[in-house]
Design goal:
With 314 residues, the chain is mainly alpha-helical. 72% of the residues lie in helices and 0% in strands. It has 14 helices and no strands.
């Protein structure tokens, strides 16, 4: 029996190269936009952080003077502490609600129907503009005429109790907690979707094998589900940290610089905004240095988180 010789397929390299060149042409518009609106601002900000530029006009290089000022600025560290405090409360509530919902919807015993509808409902707060959310809660939480205080007062009267209206957004104690709760309400749906996507990506055979081996629901969750969704948990933890340390819109819209709660709700981004865009106090060079110090803090903490997750995985 004769063996057939297989001839190698010949490609027309000239036409392939020509096709690839056209591909490069189509990429040019994106590359130009990316360089102008992404790369250039980052490099320009880095350059300005070494200058004493205020608004516009002449400036001179000052080396690391702006960075030294940031590191010794007690108001910057106070703003960072406020940010971490608000983010800490937010992340506990946000991931707590997301975990609880994930356990309910992924538990075989409950067999909750209409998961798509629930996911849409839980994700809706994340789609509402921050300005609308701020206006809504400013109205609901007004200490004199807000629906929240009126409702609590009505319940207190029914129970023959006395209730002093709480200034939820004006109290230095309650304002950070209120902002953290609002942030968790906005973002828990996003975390829930991420965690559910990780659970749904686990083959059902793993759960069936664990059940056949006699594992209970708690053991299945801790020994099967959690280890297999570790990459999703790492992603949610790191992105939550990055978003939390860059918190700006909700506290900025809910609090005014003249308010009594401003000192406990001013975040790092609000502090940066003060020197970068507020008339009368603009110091562009210093604001640029604040931005890069915050970037370095986020980078270091994110790398620590990544190391911890990978070490646990090993």
């Amino acid at each position: 029996m004769e063996e057939k010789t297989v001839r190698p397929v010949k490609f027309k390299y000239g036409s392939v190269t020509k096709f690839n060149r056209w591909g490069n042409v189509f990429v040019i518009p994106f590359s130009v936009v990316f360089l102008i609106f992404s790369v250039y601002p980052v490099l320009r900000t880095l350059f300005l952080s070494f200058t004493n530029l205020r608004v516009m006009g002449d400036y001179k290089m000052v080396g690391f003077a702006n960075y030294a000022r940031v590191l010794t600025d007690k108001f910057f560290w106070k703003a960072l502490l406020n940010t971490v405090r608000i983010w800490g409360i937010n992340i506990v509530l946000q991931l707590g609600m997301a975990f609880l919902l994930m356990m309910i919807f992924s538990d075989v015993k409950y067999k909750v129907k209409g998961l798509g509808l629930y996911r849409m409902i839980y994700y809706l707060p994340n789609l509402i503009a921050a300005t609308s959310v701020a206006f809504l809660f400013k109205t609901l939480l007004d200490w004199r005429f807000g629906t929240f205080n009126i409702g609590i007062n009505a319940i207190a009267k029914l129970l023959h109790l006395h209730y002093n209206p709480i200034d939820w957004l004006g109290s230095p104690v309650w304002a950070p907690i209120t902002i953290a709760i609002i942030q968790s309400w906005m973002w828990f749906g996003n975390s829930f979707l991420m965690l559910m996507a990780g659970v749904q990506g686990i083959p059902s055979e793993y759960f069936e094998a664990a059940a056949l081996d006699g594992a209970n629901r708690y053991q299945i969750f801790t020994k099967v589900t959690l280890p297999l969704i570790r990459p999703i948990l790492m992603y949610v933890a790191i992105t939550s940290l990055i978003g939390g340390l860059q918190m700006f819109d909700i506290p900025f819209l809910l609090e005014s610089a003249s308010g009594s709660a401003y000192n406990t709700t001013q975040t790092v981004m609000m502090y940066l905004y003060k020197f970068g865009f507020t008339a009368g106090s603009i110091q562009t060079g210093y604001a640029s240095a604040v931005a890069y110090v915050l970037f370095l803090i986020i980078l270091i903490v994110s790398l620590i988180q990544l190391y911890i997750f990978r070490r646990k995985a090993d």
